């Protein structure tokens, strides 16, 4: 796709020009295309901040086709399953449903023959989600009725979802509640924060499980379920999740050998939407998180007799 800039475009940033001329659907998509080297201005690569001049020809190449991934190649475990639902233990690295940049190899595709419910064919049966690099438990519906009831349960805050999170430093209190509206950050559109023009109510409860030398192991409980909620809320109080580069946890991640954020959905408790039976599922943290937690336990307290 190509477009010739005219006087009305002069001075626009390159990423804004792409969106304005329909060469990209969103600013984020435009920036990814530029970063991938698929955008040329008069035949040369330019930064997203390049100011377009009248007469410049801007070309955008199609992205390369994604490699075909068989649903059988998507790893996951099943903790509980009946004819109405299943509780899945998702490993880190698996995307829950297709989205921009992740069209293949998703959990939803792997469960397509078993999951039911919802109006979006790409998210059939998906009731809630986990970030790609968050591991642990989520429930998937196998019927339209179960899907509707489970979603209603989440809206009524009747599903107990608890996460293990290793965070930098130590929160001011051993337990507490973070009630801070969240939305897409005004400046960094790939992050979620309280600095937003479209805030949505968000509540996270936390409790200290283990105070370590330079970090704290918490259990975080979601009252609401916003995108990146725990990660954004912990960053907002100055205790980012270790290993989370997007929200300030990169340094601790390198120190502890983490290749992703230390966040694991370890408890899922709810009443079965059809039978009313109480379901309690638990998942132990995977090996990579256990190794990093062991490393965190060996760290001395800063300023102590063995610290820095």
Describe the structure in your own words.
The protein has 308 residues and is an alpha+beta fold. It folds into two domains: 2-60, Structural Genomics Hypothetical 15.5 Kd Protein In mrcA-pckA Intergenic Region, Chain A; 75-298, Pseudouridine synthase (2-Layer Sandwich). 19% of the residues lie in helices and 25% in strands. The protein has seven helices and 14 strands. The strands form three sheets. Strands 4, 5, 6, 7, 8, 11, 12, 13 and 14 form a nine-stranded mixed beta sheet that branches. Strands 1-3-2 form a three-stranded antiparallel beta sheet. Strands 9-10 form a two-stranded antiparallel ribbon. Helix 1 (14-20) packs across helix 2. The model has no long low-confidence stretch (mean pLDDT 90).
Brief overview, please?
The protein is an alpha+beta fold.
Q: Topology of this protein?
A:
Elements: E1 2-4, H1 14-20, H2 27-35, E2 39-41, E3 57-60, E4 77-81, E5 85-90, H3 107-110, E6 135-141, H4 144-155, E7 160-168, E8 175-179, E9 183-184, E10 192-193, E11 203-211, E12 215-222, H5 229-236, H6 250-256, E13 263-271, E14 278-282, H7 287-298
Parallel strand pairs: 6-13
Antiparallel strand pairs: 1-3, 2-3, 4-5, 5-6, 7-12, 7-13, 8-11, 9-10, 11-12, 13-14
Helix pairs in contact: 1-2
